[in-house]
Write a structure and sequence with these properties.
By secondary structure, the protein is mainly α. About 60% of the residues lie in helices and about 5% in strands. The protein has 21 helices and six strands. Helix 12 runs antiparallel to helix 13.
């Protein structure tokens, strides 16, 4: 959950964007200036993030997913630094061919197959949709067809597995580390291209941010909405495809490998496929809504999104399934039902919280939430052109319990994924640890921006809703 692609805070910041109002460009997107701490963090991540991902994968490949395995070998002398290189699975032409076909297929579905799902699926908003207004005042149009791409891809996957047998269903697992090198090559290539493009032929020069610091600009991005032509939008494509479409394919490959190795698929593997499948489908069903979230509305496109969506998301968000291949877990019926209930509860909170916000926005408050007319805080702010604008901050329903209660649902979902793996190793719990850090940081970042934007009105809002994530706790 790239910078979890579906999460957003109260309607405060996004409402104004989607309604076509302007905000102060100084508060919009990433920073204009780089402090020493930010620069140090950027350099650290650029150097070590790929190694961190590889360490997790290698721990499973060579140590049954024991994170201390490689360190223990080095400490005891059973593994020498010179041996590490010999253990690395190299890049293979087979992996290059697989990855090239995969990315090309997703580009084809994104660019050449107009969406038909919105014509026969009630309630689904697909086809041509408008995004939020950018700092330069541009409103981009998007071809929303991620659900269609997901359906077509998975129909072909199952058709191959049961009828055509063009390739083994375990193909992803069997080439997992060579594919890792392919994903890194694409992640760095697209990030480098995006930076060069920002200097030479930006889509809109008014939506670029240059700090003058190479490392920060490379990581956090310069262009707000880099595009090739009218329709190929880098942020929308790489945030949703190929990484998130691949998420469920990767889990299916893990399940196929478990069947091949042990003659059965455990209930924990079924649970991880079901729960994460619901999450992925929710993302594509609400892809048009995603255009109003923080990834599209505030983040620029650089290594953070480009590499992150190619490598970080598919390799670390699927750790539970990978773990279960090496360490199959058969949960007791009671534990399986408990994990399923927790995951569905988290999803319900996540979806209904966002639904309440969206309903409030669409009706301008003329609706009912939990059977009552919603309450809200009237806020005002001044945009860069000196104009006064007004918005409403919802304080009813789930939004009256905490200012980011959708994040709470997200974290419950994340915890349920980890619990499918039992408690023998800490590796599967990386996901809940990472998501907690990510979402708490988002809370702080989002509220800092809103405090500067709304001033004393934001203080009134935080007084009315004092907690961020957990009522009575935080």
């Amino acid at each position: 959950m790239t910078d979890d692609p579906k999460s957003s805070g109260p309607r405060k910041s996004h409402k104004n964007n989607s309604d076509g109002e302007k905000t102060d460009q100084g508060q919009w997107g990433r920073a204009w200036e780089v402090d020493c701490f930010s620069l140090a963090s950027v350099i650290f991540l650029l150097q070590f993030a790929p190694l961190i991902v590889y360490y997790f994968v290698m721990s499973c490949d060579q140590h049954q997913c024991a994170l201390t395995g490689p360190v223990t070998e080095l400490y005891t002398g059973t593994l020498h630094l010179s041996d590490i290189w010999n253990r690395i699975q190299p890049l293979t032409w087979r992996a290059v061919n697989i990855y090239t076909v995969w990315v090309a297929w997703q580009v084809f579905l994104y660019m050449a197959v107009p969406d038909l799902c919105h014509k026969f699926l009630p309630g689904y908003a697909g086809g041509i949709q408008e995004g939020a207004r950018t700092p330069a005042g541009v409103i981009n149009q998007y071809e929303i067809n991620g659900l269609q791409a997901w359906i077509i891809t998975h129909l072909l996957w199952f058709a191959n597995a049961y009828y055509f047998h063009w390739f083994s269903p375990t193909i992803v697992f069997d080439n997992w580390i060579p594919l890792f090198w392919c994903a890194n090559i694409l992640g760095y290539a697209v990030s480098t291209f995006a930076m060069i493009k920002a200097y030479i032929f930006p889509t809109d020069a008014r939506d670029c941010k240059f700090t003058g610091n190479f490392f920060y600009d490379f990581m956090m991005g310069i262009e707000f909405n880099p595009r090739i032509g009218k329709w190929f939008d880098f942020k929308l494509f790489f945030n949703g495809r190929p990484g998130i479409v691949a998420w469920t394919i990767i889990n299916l490959s893990y399940a196929a490998k478990q069947q091949e190795l042990y003659g059965q698929v455990t209930n924990s593997m079924i649970l991880i496929n079901v729960l994460q499948g619901i999450y992925v489908l929710d993302f594509f069903w609400n892809e048009a809504w995603y255009l109003k979230t923080i990834d599209i509305c505030h983040d620029h496109f650089g290594w953070y999104l480009g590499w992150g969506d190619c490598v970080w998301l598919p390799y670390l968000y699927t750790l539970q399934g990978l773990y279960l291949v090496y360490n199959p877990v058969q949960l007791s019926p009671a534990n399986a039902v408990g994990v399923l209930f927790l995951g569905l509860l988290g999803y319900y909170i996540f979806r209904m919280t966002n639904h309440q916000k969206d309903l409030f926005r669409r009706t301008n408050g003329h609706c009912k939430i939990w059977g009552r007319k919603p309450e809200y805080i009237e806020c005002s702010y001044t945009s860069a052109d000196g104009q006064r604008h007004y918005s409403k901050l919802l304080i009813s329903g789930f939004w009256g319990l905490a200012r980011h209660f959708n994040y709470t649902g997200d974290l419950l979902c994340s915890l349920s994924y980890c619990l499918t793996c039992g408690f023998e190793h800490i590796l599967p719990y990386f996901y809940i640890t990472y998501m907690s850090i990510l979402l708490i940081h988002r809370c702080v970042r989002d509220e800092h921006r809103c405090s500067g934007k709304y001033g004393k009105d934001w203080k009134r809002y935080t007084t009315a809703v004092p907690y961020r994530l957990l009522p009575g706790v935080f």
